[in-house]
Amino acid sequence: MNLPDQLSRLKSLWTRTPEQTKRLSLLLVIFVALFLPLRSLLIPADFGEIGHYRASALEENAEQHIHYAGQTICFDCHDDIVHTRNQGYHRGLSCEMCHGPAAAHAEDPGMSQLRVPRDRGYCPLCHEYLASRPTGFPQIVSASHNPLKPCITCHNPHDPVPPETPRDCEACHAAIARTKAISHHVYIPCARCHETPEEHRVNPRMFRPSKPMNRDFCGECHYTDAAGSEVTQRVERDTHGARYVCWQCHYPHLPEAK
Amino acid sequence: MEDVINHLEPLLRKIQGYIYPNEIELHWGILIVIYPYVTGLVAGAFILASLVKVFDVKELQPTYRMSLLTALAFLLVAPLPLLAHLGHPEKSFEIFLTPNKQSAMAMFGFVYAWYLMAVLLLEIWFDYRRDVIVWAQNERGPRRWFHRLFSLFSSDLSDRALKFDRKSVQTVTIIGIPSAFLLHGYVGFIFGSVKANPWWSSVLMPIVFLFSAIVSGIALVMLIYMLVTPMRRKEMDMRCLDKLASFLFYAMIVDFSLEILDFIHRIYESEESIGILAELASGKLFVSLVVIQLLIGMILPLGAIAVVKLFGVPAELRRLLYFVSALLVQVGIFSTRYNVVVGGQLFSKSLRGLTSYKMTIVGVEGLLMSIALLLLPFVILYILFNLLPPWTGTGRGLMTPPEGSQK
């Protein structure tokens, strides 16, 4: 086929195309012709070199100022403290947790003072009693736990063993103790109902105290025929809540709760 | 820091049970509720328009163009709540420059663009082309120029060209239906694919979204038709209204069944989250879920339309019932979106606690902004109705005085 022939075929194709298609295609062509150069203009040159982002973004991020030093470097100069810390209960805490970002300090100790949280308000951030903390996590109620003195007068922050094993059940069972303290059972010591081995204070999960086993335990004070104080309310042995143990209905640490 | 504490303090008082610190405040607020609501209206209105073209439902002819323009007006507004929610809206166009195939949200930009450009505008263009050329011939001034520009200076009114128009509308509609499904199914997909959120994560999500979209779209076009017709001092076409109500009724039945199915499925499956979800549904969401979404937005309108269908109700009362039902459906579907978006963020991932949503009044994400965004489509629609009157015959807009009084 020769050239004029081809041209005339093209021409007839053009006339046969509906007018609408021509106009819309023109619009499309204009759109694409604008979009493509605009796109290459707007996309940063290093986009996509490594991933779906600007490669130089990595450098920009790397240039950011470093604040934290990590804790291995502290060993170079404070090996004694690192050693103490590693033996104690705070072995899981990093130094910068309490002392704040220390990169500048590790670089030049003389130039930069670190935060040293000596005040009493600091430690309760982790140790204040909170119902949602795991059972067994050492918690205190700071309002009643040796108030007014800074924590560090009695606890070494790098090795915070309590100065002596806790005497008081409240140190660990704060919620129960505080409940009982306002209950009608306030004057009954914990040990009256729980025989507690001495080791429980040191190793509570291994050595468990006893718990009352049957109705007659409470009956020792509450049955109609029980000896004891007049003020104690009495109930019938065989009829009152028969067949159930008392604590299915009465919370022993707050018995008046209905 | 002070500001943050002051801001969070009132929220903290409303927390129930145990939640993680980053769950106190909701990240997706009322704007993200509006967004799926509006896209749903778009998809629904478009699917209604397609019924006329593809399934040739003659009775709905009077609402055909109206539905298309409604879809367009709402589609133009759909991205605005998202942009208002973004920290840097001015960067949003970049998702088109460097498409990220890993991100469902980023790819949604393309679904949106496809739907706007390749479907909706194209269908409107082909459908109006003839009329616009004719109007332009009898007009002067800016109106004439707008119409000339809109027709892309086209002038071919031959039979062959008109036939091509009709065929193109048909083709675009056929492509359009799956596209509309995609548009709104995608919104459901984005929620449904959040694995970590038991309230959202469900394969039924896209389908439920789709059918609620159809319900809301039909109800919206119904409302607009019932408002605009008296404004033009024309008689309402009762056959058209009855048909619309029938479709609304069927769509609602499907939507209702799907939602109940989802509900039963969740209860039977009883995953570990069921406890907190039950607490959510019977507590913080009780009013918006059970009372508004289910009773007011679903059962009441279903009942009203069923009454109309079962007993012959006089036209006057029928119109009233339709109008009220369509209005209630809107309220119900809006509340559906609210329950999905906000409800999904009210419970903690620990499944042990609930937080609260507090809407602000002013501000970009506040109540006033939301109202403005919901009114804007109607302003656009008013302009569209004037520029491209959807009613056949006249080239006149909604409020323009009749021929003769115009200078």
What labels describe this entry?
heterodimer; A: 258 residues; mainly alpha; Helix Hairpins; 36% helix; B: 407 residues; Formate dehydrogenase/DMSO reductase fold; two-stranded antiparallel ribbon; 15 helices; 2 strands; disordered C terminus
How would you characterize this protein structure?
Chain A has about 260 residues and is an all-alpha fold. Among the domains of chain A are: about 65-115, Helix Hairpins, CATH 1.10.287; about 115-165, no CATH class; about 170-175 and about 185-250, no CATH class. Helix content of chain A is about 35%, strand content about 0%. Chain A is built from 10 helices and no strands. Chain A has helices at about 5-15, 20-40, 55-60, 75-85, 95-100, 105, 125, 175-180, 190-195, 215-220. The radius of gyration of chain A is 38 Å and the shape is elongated. By secondary structure, chain B is mainly alpha-helical. Chain B has a single domain, classed as Formate dehydrogenase/DMSO reductase fold. Chain B has helices spanning about 1-15, 30-55, 60-75, 80-85, 95, 105-135, 140-150, 160-190, 205-230, 240-270, 275-280, 285-310, 315-340, 345, 365-385; strands spanning about 15, 355. In chain B, helix 8 packs across helix 9 (about 205-230). Chain B is globular, with a radius of gyration of 23 Å. The interface of A and B includes residues 27, 43 and 132 of A.
